[in-house]
Design goal:
The protein is α+β, with helices and mostly antiparallel strands. Helix content is 31%, strand content 25%. The strands form three sheets. Strands 1, 2, 3, 4, 5, 6, 7, 8, 9, 10, 11, 12 and 13 form a 13-stranded antiparallel β-sheet that branches. Strands 14, 15, 16, 17, 18, 19 and 22 form a seven-stranded antiparallel β-sheet that branches. The protein has a two-stranded antiparallel ribbon with strand order 20-21. α10 packs antiparallel against α11.
Length: 573
């Protein structure tokens, strides 16, 4: 096999060091695709050259610098004299792009090609063999290369330190890459540099959570870059394998010596996504079967599920919807089921199957509970295998007419009132928010409806503020009351509740302004008078605290001045 001259290796490496690293998928050409027979100038950092398309390639992907490409080629001078060729079609030329193994122009030409494409590149000396030339190519010659891009293997430096080199042998589906929480199934075979097999998975592969890892530290790092069905060859340096310790023999496999470089062939055969439903890892959903479309149930949806509920040791304590039994129907966000199941249901699509792992905080808490098939011990983590059979989403405000919006707002407000009476302040607040959304200021109502809508909206904001006070969310109280006061500047309830919130966040002067205004509007209001008395005590305490602070500050300043004078006199003496 005749190889290309390496006269440009030094220049290429020097230039590559200065260039910014290209991102995968970076577009090389922005011009329209070439037609067969068309010619175009290609620009590179080292100079320009011509490309003529002889045969279209497949798809739209192109190799990148660092990839291993396989080509057939013929190199010739302008008079047709050939100086290099792959005459044997069974032995194409394989090399790594951007590593100085071919002339500069050919490196930059091949990254514009598609698989199966054939092109003719005309290279001037500055991107060819320059003033040095090679055997068969005089100095400063213009050369031509007819190239067929047979294939390429994408090469990725996973950790960007040369410790894990990944060669993509077969691309996967557009599913992935997996996250730390996801469960994966992989097949792999591990060999030493001399070909000795030191590990191999069973034919069905091995399942594990990415965060838990498997075999050696390199595997989870690589898996998080892969897609389902992807096959790779890995070259793993000792620091990402077993370091200077090595690994003892296991089963029928020999030990791995210290400081061993490993070759790993691996396929990512399955991904089971795991979703952190609550954001604190206390309700996790592992998807066993994807549902239909992209729409999920929402808060207030009527859902129908079947499930098997177990303890962590596998003891089944509840089973609904199997063996002729009726599935479970419930409305989400209405506390009709445990919180973990309720929250997870709002993330599921129709037909989706999933395993839910629910911590006690979102399950049955610290109490012992008797269910149909078993007793649930206190503080138990529980597991539900759930299938979402069907759901009907709660109608969105934009899907309603004005009359329907008003009726829905009145209904939600009443639901909020009932929840407030029994101390369910968070759920009550959500009902008031929803009611206010139905009669939003952005909606145009008739003149006859405007008075009712305005009263309803202000009432929802005030009730929402009352919920936030109970929940110690004082900034939300201030926000909601301010919305009311923007519409009715003398609303005593809004002034009273905002003053309460201002006092809680130590904004005493603002609280004083609200209380004064409320008393001006309603001088006989007992609640406002009581809070005025509390505010007076707080202001007096604040003044005493400030006076004490300033006294200490001035005392310290006086002492410092006296000490400075003494030091000055001592220095003069």
């Amino acid at each position: 096999m005749v190889e290309f001259s390496k006269v440009n290796i030094v220049e290429i490496k020097d230039e590559d060091d200065d260039e910014e690293e290209e991102e995968p998928g970076e577009e090389i050409e922005s011009a329209p695709p070439l037609k067969v027979g068309e010619e175009r100038e290609i620009k590179s950092p080292f100079g320009c050259f011509q490309k003529k398309l002889l045969k279209h390639g497949l798809n739209w992907e192109s190799p990148q610098f660092g990839d291993e490409v396989t080509i057939h080629y013929v190199g010739s001078l302008l008079d047709g004299m050939e100086f290099v060729t792959t005459t044997d079609k069974d032995k194409p030329f394989t090399f790594k792009l951007g590593h100085g193994q071919v002339v500069t122009g050919l490196d930059h030409g091949i990254i514009t090609m598609r698989k199966g494409e054939t092109a003719l590149f005309t290279l001037p000396p500055e991107v060819g063999y320059r003033e040095a030339g090679i055997d068969g190519v005089p100095p400063n010659s213009i050369v031509q290369f007819e190239v067929e891009l047979v294939s390429w293997i994408t090469v990725v430096d996973v950790c960007r330190d040369g410790g894990i080199i990944k060669k993509i042998m077969e691309k996967g589906e557009q599913i992935g890459p997996p996250s730390n929480l996801d469960e994966v199934c992989v097949n792999y075979k591990v060999t030493l540099v001399d070909g000795t097999t030191v590990a191999k998975t069973p034919e069905e592969g091995v399942e594990f959570y990415v965060k838990d890892g498997n075999f050696c530290p390199a595997l989870p790092k690589v898996i998080k870059t892969m897609q389902k069905g992807e096959k790779v060859n890995l070259i793993v340096q000792p620091q990402y394998a077993f370091g200077d310790v090595g690994k003892e023999s296991l089963d029928e496999f020999p030990p791995i010596p210290p400081n061993s470089v490993l070759n790993i062939f691996m396929e990512l055969s399955a991904i089971k996504p795991v979703i952190d439903v609550t954001g604190d890892l206390k309700v996790k959903k592992k998807i066993l079967k994807e549902g239909e479309g992209v729409v999920t149930a929402n808060e207030g949806a009527a859902v129908t599920i079947r499930y098997t509920a177990k303890l962590e040791d596998g003891t089944v304590f509840e089973r609904e919807g199997f063996d002729g039994g009726q599935p479970l129907e419930f409305i989400t966000d209405e506390e009709q089921v445990i919180v973990g199941l309720d929250r997870a249901a709002t993330t599921m699509k129709k037909g989706e199957c999933a395993i839910l792992t629910i911590s006690p905080e979102y399950g049955f808490g610290s109490t012992e509970v008797k269910r149909d098939l078993a007793i649930i011990p206190s503080s138990s983590t529980i597991v539900y295998e759930v299938e979402m059979l069907d759901f009907t989403k709660e109608k969105a405000p934009w899907e309603m007419g004005n009359l329907e919006r008003i009726e829905a707002a009145v209904r939600k407000k009443e639901e909020g009132n009932q929840l407030f009476k029994i101390g369910k302040y968070q759920r009550a607040g959500k009902k008031y928010d929803k009611a206010a959304e139905y009669v939003s200021e952005d909606v145009v109502f008739t003149d006859d409806d405007q008075k009712l809508v305005k009263t309803l909206r202000l009432s929802c904001w005030l009730n929402g503020a009352a919920c936030s006070l109970k929940l110690n969310d004082f900034q939300e109280v201030i926000k909601l009351c301010s919305k009311v006061l923007d519409v009715e500047s003398c609303n005593v309830k809004a002034l009273y509740r905002r003053a309460q919130a201002y006092m809680k966040v130590a904004e005493l002067l603002l609280a004083e302004l609200d209380i004064k205004k409320a008393i001006e509007v309603d001088p006989q209001n007992r609640e406002v008078k009581l809070i005025q008395k509390n505010l007076k005590n707080l202001l007096e305490e604040s003044n005493r605290r400030d006076a004490k602070l300033y006294t200490a500050m001035f005392s310290r300043m006086t002492n410092d001045a006296s000490n400075a004078a003494k030091r000055l006199k001592t220095a003069e003496d």
